[in-house]
UniProtKB/TrEMBL annotation:
SUPFAM superfamilies: P-loop containing nucleoside triphosphate hydrolases. Keywords: ATP-binding, Nucleotide-binding, Transport. It holds the Pfam family ABC_tran. This is ABC transporter ATP-binding protein. Transmembrane segments: none annotated. InterPro entries: AAA+_ATPase (IPR003593), ABC_transporter-like_ATP-bd (IPR003439), ABC_transporter-like_CS (IPR017871), ABC_Transporter_VariousFunc (IPR051782), P-loop_NTPase (IPR027417). It comes from Glaciecola siphonariae. GO terms for molecular function: ATP binding. The keyword ATP-binding applies. PANTHER family: ABC TRANSPORTER ATP-BINDING PROTEIN ALBC-RELATED. Residues 2-232 form the ABC transporter domain. SMART domains: AAA. It comes from the Bacteria.
Amino acid sequence: MFKATQLSKKFNQNYALQNLNLEVNAGEIFCLLGANGAGKSTTLNLFLGFLTPSDGSASVCGFCPQSAPLEVRRRTLYIPENVALYEDLTGFENLQYLSALAGVKNRNKATLEDILDKAGLASTAFHKRTKEYSKGMRQKVGIALAIAKDAKALLLDEPTSGLDPKASVDFHNLISEQRSRGAAILMATHDLFRAKEVADRVGVMRQGKLTRVMSTDTLSANALEEIYLQEMA
Ligand SMILES: Nc1ncnc2c1ncn2[C@@H]1O[C@H](COP(=O)(O)OP(=O)(O)OP(=O)(O)O)[C@@H](O)[C@H]1O
């Protein structure tokens, strides 16, 4: 689903990302860890087509984000730290509008309400303006759009930063459900503990390089923290 081959990005002769080789498959969650400035957002932005590689290549579902942006956009959902919504529209209206833009065919009221419910939004919030929504509620509208689009590739940039622990757990449960329906998920996060809980594999980035990739099934949270700190030393 996501594939990077010798993917590199330079800004003013400095590498923000250098020779990244990575594959994230359908039904897999991969968390990118690393200090501020390590190159996590740059990686996501290259997959999203917001940036052009200096060298190497990226593909999403077999399509190049730079040469086939529409094919990539159709299959991808991006959830940043703060999900941008139309503040004067309700959560339901946002989903209706954004799913229309995404070319979703079945957009009747019952279907969209069912999707908002699956995304964990309380039914009492469906028809409230999103200017009244908390950060966690906005994330849920983002997840609802992923469900509506049946997005095969999810890119998340510190989506739980600033969420309270319960909202963070809820969010990670929703992400796990997206994995179960076959999505590939690439998530940048600073939350080592949650990354260990939710991801199938984690990768540690340092100064633009992916220095370590680990499977989480045989790793404790403490071991991950220790390895992370060693990599940062
Ligand atoms: N548009 C840009 N112009 C110049 N330098 C940039 C640009 N975007 C990112 N960089 C640099 O590239 C490097 C990687 O940045 P990036 O945002 O990918 O890091 P990050 O791991 O996502 O950090 P954070 O955890 O703070 O979000 C940093 O040194 C940053 O200053």
